[in-house]
Specification:
Blueprint lengths: L1 H15 L4 H4 L6 E6 L1 H4 L4 H9 L2 H13 L3 H13 L8 E6 L5 E6 L5 H11 L4 E3 L2 E6 L6 E5 L4 E4 L1 H8 L13 E5 L5 H4 L6 H9 E11 L2 E10 L5 H7 L16 E6 L2 H14 L11 E9 L6 H6 L5 E7 L2 H18 L8 E8 L2 E8 L4 E7 L2 E5 L2 H6 L9 H4 L11 E6 H15 L7 H22 L2 E11 L2 E10 L2
Length: about 500
């Protein structure tokens, strides 16, 4: 790992001396994808790649792809050559793709240092009619939908529509990427806003569109794991009711107060305002329906609990093992509303002469609740705690209500301090436990998915290999947390997932 960090530092210094690809890209894009350092960061995955190959999964994928495409031996060799040249190393140092309001696109790539010679020499052979242009060798290919210009220098590759390329060669450059990261995707609707003036869109809908000022998300690989960040920018000149829904002022329930599970999520979303907002738009479009959620509050949470790996138990529990917490303003009305929804669901989940809808009061460990039969979907449970209604989708989930909370989970305790107290949403995921559960489900549920006895043996062998690979990953990952905060008119989110590379 120390060697990787030294190489990474040296690479970043050398990259700083060169002009970055966003600085060379024409501005005004409505969407873009930017990558950096991938050629070096892929060393983080060496152990994973080795395990994938050791288990024979790489050979199986190649064989399956060849059979699916019905490739000849010559075509297989050509495909392998293509994969060796045009892979992640093409954008090993940097890569960017942008799309513009007029439909044009622009892409630049700076291949890995150890692969750039092969990439450029291959392009020289492919572009037989290339002509010099401003220090580049370029060739335009005519297409049915649009023409495409392809070009190269000693270390860069260009693919673009002629119009976007003309802007590049005219020195119209200087795009700003909204976030930092090894992989960044963004959408910027601002260049499209003038188009609203040329449409017959009703003012109410135009105001909704103007609410969204942009979205960006970034991912970065670091020695301790995967870090993510996202930003949802909203315009204060947009729909005020939509702004209030997306930028809440309240704080989410603390995760440590909720039940333990593989995944625990808490957030703020005003259900009463949401119901009124949806009703307003339904009436706007001529639909006479009132989505009355006034009995509910502003906080919700979901806990996903471990699932049984026995296929028979899985079939008996189609709704899974979850706890859904919903804040209530009027507990009685809220319960009646949920029971009416469950009754409608039971009508769809009931075969003739079987199942049905049934409600009965129960008590477990001092907690009063209602057990509800929802047709052939099984039983769910409704309970109340101090202004909170809790829906448990199974008996196992219901029993978790009186069990330990997330505060007692050592895995969560290691990450709890990463979540700020003013978060409007937060989540914790036990990645290792989730992957181990999924690995166990692969071979146990395979007979439910494969009917052909002749294919069963091969399918089992592949499933066992894939199961072993998931268990390998589960041994390398830990927990993960994510949260969101409101800052002015933006929703800023960050996440971290532990990986022992």
């Amino acid at each position: 790992m120390k060697k990787i960090l030294v190489l990474l530092s040296a690479f970043l210094v050398s990259l700083a001396l060169a002009q970055t690809l966003p600085a060379l890209t024409p501005p005004g894009a409505v969407a873009g994808l930017y990558t950096r350092n991938l050629g070096l960061k892929k060393t983080f995955f060496l152990d994973f790649q080795a395990e994938w190959a050791r288990l024979g999964l790489a050979d199986w994928v190649d064989q399956a792809l060849g059979e699916e495409l019905e490739l000849s031996e010559t075509e297989r060799r050509e495909l392998e050559l293509f994969r060796q040249i045009f892979n992640l190393d093409v954008v090993g140092r940097e890569g960017i793709v942008t799309v513009y309001p007029d439909g044009n696109f622009f892409a630049l790539a700076r291949p890995s240092a150890d692969r750039v010679g092969l990439v450029i020499s291959t392009l020289k052979n492919l572009l037989e009619e290339a002509r010099p242009r401003s220090g580049w060798m370029v060739q335009t290919f005519a297409g049915e939908e649009m023409d495409i210009l392809v070009g190269y220098t000693k270390e860069l590759v260009l693919v673009a529509t002629p119009t976007a390329a003309d802007r590049f060669f005219a020195k119209e450059r200087g795009l700003e990427v909204p976030l930092e990261g090894d992989l960044v995707f963004w959408v910027d609707p601002e260049p499209l806003l003038p188009l609203l003036e040329t449409t017959d869109l009703p003012p109410e809908l135009a105001r909704v569109v103007r609410t969204f000022a942009g979205y960006a998300t970034a991912l970065e690989l670091q020695p301790d794991g995967v870090h993510t960040r996202s930003r949802l920018a909203l315009s204060p000149e947009g729909d005020p009711e939509l702004l209030a829904l997306l930028l809440p002022e309240e704080r989410a329930w603390p995760l440590e107060d909720l039940a333990q599970g593989h995944s625990v999520t808490s957030g703020v979303f005003d259900l009463a305002k949401f119901g009124a907002y949806v009703t307003q738009w339904l009436q706007f479009f001529g639909v006479d329906y009132d989505l009355d959620l006034s009995a509910f509050g502003r906080r919700i949470a979901v806990v996903t609990l471990p699932m049984p790996t026995d296929p028979m138990l899985l079939q008996q529990n189609p709704l899974g093992n979850m706890l859904i917490y919903v804040e209530t303003e009027d507990p009685i009305t809220a319960e009646v509303t949920v029971l009416s929804w469950l009754q409608q669901a039971a009508a769809f989940a009931t075969a003739e002469g079987a199942g049905g809808f049934k409600v009965e009061p129960i008590e477990a460990d001092g907690l009063e609740a209602r057990r509800v039969q929802v047709g052939l979907w099984g039983e769910v449970y409704l309970a109340h705690r101090e202004g909170v209604m809790i829906l448990a989708t199974s008996a196992e989930a219901f029993s978790a209500l009186t069990g330990p909370t997330l505060e007692d989970d050592p895995a969560f305790q290691r990450f709890a301090t990463r979540i700020p107290p003013n978060a409007v949403s937060a989540s914790f995921t036990n990645l290792s436990g989730t992957l181990r559960e999924q690995a166990a489900l692969i071979t146990s549920t395979l007979p439910l998915m494969v009917d052909d006895p002749a294919a069963m043996q091969t399918s089992f062998a592949i499933a066992e290999q894939f199961q072993a690979f998931l268990e390998f990953i589960a041994g390398r990952v830990g927990g993960g947390v994510a949260y969101s905060q409101v800052q002015d008119h933006t929703l800023e989110s960050e996440g971290f997932w532990e990986v022992r590379w």
